[in-house]
Amino acid sequence: MALSNVERQGGVSVMLLQGDALQRKIIHVDMDAFYASVEQRDHSELRGRPVAVGGARERGVVAAASYEARKFGVKSAMPSVTARRRCPELVFVKPRFDVYRAVSQQVRRIFEEYTPLIEPLSLDEAYLDVSENSKGIPTATEIARQIRARIHAETGLTASAGVSYNKFLAKMASCERKPDGLFVITPKMGPAFVETLPIGKFHGIGPATCAKMERLGIRLGTDLKAQTSSFLQQHFGKVGPYYYGLARGVDERPVCADRVRKSIGAENTFSADLFTLDEAIAALEPLIAKVWSYCDDSKIRGRTVTLKAKFADFEQVTRRRTVPTPFTTQEAVEEIVRSLLESLFPATKGIRLLGVTLSSLGEGAANERQLRLWF
């Protein structure tokens, strides 16, 4: 296997290996405390203060928190009353999804100057494959530096970036130096980095899977690496071989640009279980708003709403309803979601996660085009 391009950061050489094809160069860009940072940028009186984007009422939920608020333990999906208790000086701001989408599109245009291979994950993060880039820049690290500088200059906001040879490690790298940081995981570093990583920090391994792994004695990457592929497949099904690869720093998933979406959804795992209908309705409001903002921005509609709920004991249920014609307003979606939610109450156990998905997208002449979730 021949050696190809060399990345350098702080004196560290990143050798990209070449077999039949050039090893991928992947960047994961994650805006720092995006919603809260936009509000602090646009309202000078909020700068340096603990800010929560979301509902301030008793049954409200935090959609995003500034870093000043996070120091007090305030985080997204937390009930507003709990956030206020942890940080009495917390300032609540109503979300402005139209503004967040506009900033997201600014960032997307910056990405497009470097590569067409962009896979958005949400309004505030995306993967970029810069193995071959539009500007002919030899290193992914330099591209990440330029992108972060451009984002700051053009939006007044900061972004963190992770650079690596696959998507999983690029995602992990972007978390290492937040906020406003850049971190590189080289092919040589990758396997050792994964071995020391707690299972709970693996991107893509949720609380239920993490708990199951811990019951099997898998607590670190090195424990996961000690398992055979057949063992992991036996206990985790078809995703088992994927976990087997991750434990060795291997992730073959490509960056998928401009995917035709069949559904759009949002979900939150709560720091405290929900027990009342009012709490659950309040928790769903920002999720529905996120889903509808995508539909509004993309000018697409759907006919099927799915409500997902996971209880404290990890039992998961879904409720689904399809209407004859596509939804035209957010209020119509909210009405269906509330109807589906009411069937779960009175709840005999706490709800730890709620999610909303809108599907049956792309129906009708107006929706024949490919769908793009703008970063």
UniProtKB/TrEMBL annotation:
Mg(2+) binds at residues 30, 124. It is an enzyme of class 2 (transferase). The record marks 35 as: Substrate discrimination. The active site is at 125. Binds 2 magnesium ions per subunit. The keyword Cell membrane does not apply. Its main location: cytoplasm. Its EC number is 2.7.7.7. GO terms for cellular component: cytosol. Its cofactor is Mg(2+). It is found in: Cytoplasm. Residues 26-206 form the UmuC domain. GO terms for molecular function: damaged DNA binding; DNA-directed DNA polymerase activity; magnesium ion binding. Keywords: Cytoplasm, DNA damage, DNA repair, DNA replication, DNA-binding, DNA-directed DNA polymerase, Magnesium, Metal-binding, Mutator protein, Nucleotidyltransferase, Transferase. GO terms for biological process: DNA repair; DNA-templated DNA replication; error-prone translesion synthesis; SOS response. InterPro entries: DNA/RNA_pol_sf, DNA_pol_Y-fam_lit_finger_sf, DNA_pol_Y-fam_little_finger, DNA_polymerase-Y, DNApol_IV, Rev_trsase/Diguanyl_cyclase, UmuC. It catalyses: DNA(n) + a 2'-deoxyribonucleoside 5'-triphosphate = DNA(n+1) + diphosphate. Monomer. Belongs to the DNA polymerase type-Y family. Poorly processive, error-prone DNA polymerase involved in untargeted mutagenesis. Copies undamaged DNA at stalled replication forks, which arise in vivo from mismatched or misaligned primer ends. These misaligned primers can be extended by PolIV. Exhibits no 3'-5' exonuclease (proofreading) activity. May be involved in translesional synthesis, in conjunction with the beta clamp from PolIII. HAMAP family: DNApol_IV. This is DNA polymerase IV. It comes from Paludisphaera borealis. The lineage of its organism: Bacteria, Pseudomonadati, Planctomycetota, Planctomycetia, Isosphaerales.
